């Protein structure tokens, strides 16, 4: 017979200290990545923004570093509410991404269009460093579109209650699904430290999320729509449901 065992109340183990929670520091992946970008004066350019009025289509962001260019390609598609899931078994997402070494030509872009939206079911090449996908925070996304399209800024409390317009459900790197493995990445690119490429991809996805919501708001009401103010943008990050 099993003996009764004492179970801690949830309030005992579920504290920030016991869970190992730490505030970001100079050693954090994101902060060290951003310091490098600022120190070396990297630039971010939106080279392609081929989206329809509802925000579906393709966008490409080029990141120019001191030595080379990287491209984050973004695919946005319609997703029915009943198909939206953050679980690993999901097969469709609002958006999908790949961080690619160099600028994209038409042949490479067509290859990525066929494969990146499929995620694990697609094929990647060693020229891709990161594979990712993200879903909208539908509640906040709609609120922000509604406000901007009427010439208003969203309530900062609504922004802070959620904190993001898109949340990633996976950010893959280091050789998964045919991507460049870390040994190659470290020797062939500027990303010689763990998770640098992944952090850059997430940073640019966050930029895309703002461009996306402003684009949709503009097409709802072209004559009155406004862009997000800088002080409100600064409260937006990227959500993460991948653990």
Any overview of this molecule?
With 243 residues, this protein is of the alpha+beta class. The protein has one domain (29-240). It contains 7 helices and 7 strands; from the N terminus they run αββββαβααβαααβ. β1 (43-51) and β2 (57-64) form a beta hairpin. α1 (29-39) packs across α6 (196-220) and α3 crosses α6 (196-220). The longest helix is centred in the C-terminal third of the chain and has 25 residues, at 196-220.
Quick overview:
The protein has 243 residues and is α+β, with helices and mostly antiparallel strands. Strands 1-2-3-4-5-6-7 form a 7-stranded mixed sheet. The chain has helices spanning 29-39, 106-115, 138-149, 156-162, 182-188, 196-220, 230-233; strands at residues 43-51, 57-64, 69-76, 95-101, 128-136, 164-172, 237-240.
Number of domains: 1
Oligomeric state, counting identical vs distinct chains: single chain
| Main pleated sheet | 7 strands, mixed
Strand content: 15-25%
Strand segment tally = 7
Write out the strand line-up for the largest beta sheet, numbering strands in chain order.
Answer: 1-2-3-4-5-6-7
Q: What key phrases describe this protein's structure?
A:
single chain, 243 residues, alpha+beta, seven-stranded mixed sheet
Topology at a glance:
Layout: H1 29-39, E1 43-51, E2 57-64, E3 69-76, E4 95-101, H2 106-115, E5 128-136, H3 138-149, H4 156-162, E6 164-172, H5 182-188, H6 196-220, H7 230-233, E7 237-240
Parallel strand pairs: 6-7
Antiparallel strand pairs: 1-2, 2-3, 3-4, 4-5, 5-6
